């Protein structure tokens, strides 16, 4: 009896492996041509070779077995799915729904429909492929395997963030997901289909509801954070604005502090000397109280600790901008991508002039789905979709040349260089070298921008800042509270430290004696400058306390670290400001 069972199992095994290998090879060949370069493409390339080898071996064994036993029926009838099998569609939909929940503020309804439609289309194609290949094996086994395969491809960015240690280990982890999940579902399906259906439904509901609850509690926590409400008109009621020079705020993506860049092994003193030589004051020891682009720059523009619907502020609906408009200022914004307008209806943009064009719809959905296919969410994904950085630079330079014609005007720009790491939770090879190359590009771009302004509008106010750091230490991403005790000052500099340099008009720069510390000091210093009232800066400036969500609970309070390896020490050794605590001031 055991011998008969053994013979039955092993006689079917080569054929089962053959059909799964054929499906796996077909999936990898099809997906590899539509998948952008990244972790998923590397995985598909690896799995394609393995599937081809397995297909050849199992095919030979299957053919030999049929010849040996004199069987003529190598292929069987095509199997069709039952309506109840549609429950299995929840498996690949699970990560997609989670991505939509995570990015809900960035997506319009059309973006969500686009992502879901493409997902369902991909699932239907895989279903059709499973039906065709069912002539060689069990349709139900092929269907479950293909849907779990697609689930794993969609879930790669999450796997990489939680487990990855490079592309090599990712291949093993992805394969483990596919084999283990497929085996579990197939076993339950064979025992009783209802058990397998219940398992698929439970997996979808538990994963989706936990993600939704996590986001809900996070939003509730953010809403409970005390936001500094201010009425600028009240603060300025006793001040008369008599001068309205043009203003330029130039933001260079992830441009860190000179001290931090030196720690990476790059000497950036030449660029700092350039800034000083053309009349800028470099603020040493500067940082942002936010550690991401939107988190940082919304606080700059609104002069408040905003925490939700952030793109609405970078779309021009911000306190600082609105007050300048009341003074007669035109506001002009040039961004390197559409990212800062995400989720905002066209009629909600409040910049007087802006670039790029926001009339296109569905672009956020395109970026999201492409990132899912790639298996990683890169910081420059939106720039890649826009597709023409040279056009951005050219448009920016045109406005820098002609802004004086709109006087008084405020010009705001946010570029893409030098840029930060790829948000995977793993430092990829040559991460620092790529940053150094992009830093050189940013330096050249900065000099071109400033030379254009100083040549055409020398009596203006100019701020040159980074929005946050480049994320080059530890895991090159957000830090977990689990490693709080190992987080040091360089890790915090790396995420919150920024470049900051300011140029005041030569004829009235005696009114600019502000002790700048954070990039969120931009508008308080501008408004105090316009009002010719240095005390106004202290009224308007924001608390110098950083968010700690990306830094494992370690944060900065007035230039001093709280928590971590360097608890109680200054964030930076070189500073243009004095610390509140004289004892800490002496520490270096």
Can you describe this structure?
The chain is of the alpha/beta class. It has two domains: 13-216, no CATH class; 244-424 and 434-585, Alkaline Phosphatase, subunit A (3-Layer(aba) Sandwich), CATH 3.40.720.10. Helices cover 52% and strands 7% of the residues. The protein contains 22 helices and nine strands. It has helices at 2-32, 39-68, 90-102, 109-133, 139-154, 156-163, 167-191, 193-224, 232-235, 258-264, 269-277, 293-302, 311-314, 319-326, 363-374, 381-386, 389-402, 431-456, 489-496, 522-531, 535-540, 582-585; strands at 247-252, 281-282, 330-335, 353-355, 409-414, 461-466, 500-503, 555-557, 560-562. α17 (389-402) runs parallel beside α18. It is elongated.
Can you identify the CATH superfamily of the largest domain?
Answer: Alkaline Phosphatase, subunit A
Number of individual domains: 2
* Portion in helices: 40-55%
CATH A-level architecture of the largest domain: 3-Layer(aba) Sandwich
- CATH class type of the largest domain: Alpha Beta
Q: Major beta sheet, specifics?
A: 7 strands, mixed
Low-confidence stretches: 1-11, 164-168, 221-229
State the strand order across the main sheet.
Answer: 2-7-6-1-5-3-4
Shape: elongated
Total number of β-strand segments? 9
- The CATH topology label of the largest domain is Alkaline Phosphatase, subunit A
Q: Count of DSSP helices?
A: 22
Arithmetic mean pLDDT: 83
Rg for CA atoms = 29 Å
Terminal Cα span: 80 Å
Secondary-structure content class: alpha/beta
What share of the residues does DSSP label as strand, in percent? 5-15%
